[in-house]
Amino acid sequence: MTDQTLWEGVYSALRQQIEAGGLPPGADVPRELRLAEEHGVSRQTVRAALTKLQQEGLITRGRGSRGRQVRDRRPLWWKLSEFERGSRRDDGEKGHDDWAAGVTDQGREPRQVVSVSIEAAVPEISAALELSDGSLVVRRQRVRYVDGLPFQLSTSWFPEDIARDTPLMEKRDVAVAGGILRSIGHPQIWGRDVITVRMPTPAEANQLDLPMGTPVGQHSRTGYGEDGAPVRHMITVFPGDRHCLVYELELS
């Protein structure tokens, strides 16, 4: 048999296991050495089969001591016409915000890693927040995980005079009933959403562990306060194969 036939045999066997549930979502993929011995082929042949499965989004690529796993390909569903409207479900004790509540509702496990900095706004951000170029802003970045896998990169920028010395500066997953901005006296009254679809940057593809050729969605939201001035600009980047966005509108 040719080398191509050999790796295709390993690939087909593993794919059938995944599709039949023998290797369910989250399961560890057998190590290269074990697969090589099981199929009587070289590790290079096994690696070619695993690369193909990874490119199709069926398994993760594995990092460090953590080996490859079967991806959970169930998408998250978001009713964006309702999300962050009305009664929020922030849980301060658990540190779960409205996003985490939405993930939990779908039987999934949320986690967020937060970093915060004060920086001079680049032109795109200063324009969105209606600030002078170079004005100081608080940048709050969250890498959002679902069932241990990276699902979203969500970054929010706030005018520095609003966010300084508030919970928005805390480098942890903070949740306050009704939302942090409302709790510090700057509630978002209305917002403007822009959704685009594009290919990821190399950094985004790496952070989100994206299979080759996977597009991302970008959800930009600017929130405005009671006086009509922007209080937050947020950009969320998410894999196109892991999310479904739903809007329900009155048409008459």
What is the rounded Rg?
Answer: 22 Å
Distance between the amino and carboxyl termini: 65 Å
Give the quaternary arrangement of the chains.
single chain
Strand tally is 8
Q: How many helices in DSSP terms? A: 8
Tell me about this structure.
By secondary structure, the protein is an alpha+beta fold. 27% of the residues lie in helices and 27% in strands. It contains 8 helices and 8 strands, in the order αααβαβαββααβαβββ. The protein has helices spanning 3-20, 32-39, 43-55, 98-105, 123-128, 160-163, 180-183, 202-207, and strands at residues 76-79, 110-120, 136-146, 149-159, 190-198, 216-224, 230-239, 243-246. Strands 2-3-4-7-6-5 form a 6-stranded antiparallel β-sheet. A two-stranded parallel sheet has the order 1-8. A hairpin with a 2-residue loop joins strand 3 and strand 4 (149-159). Helix 1 packs across helix 3 (43-55) and helix 2 (32-39) crosses helix 3. The longest helix is centred in the first third of the chain and has 18 residues, at 3-20. It starts with a helix and ends in a 6-residue tail after the last strand. 26% of the residues are buried. The model has no long low-confidence stretch (mean pLDDT 89).
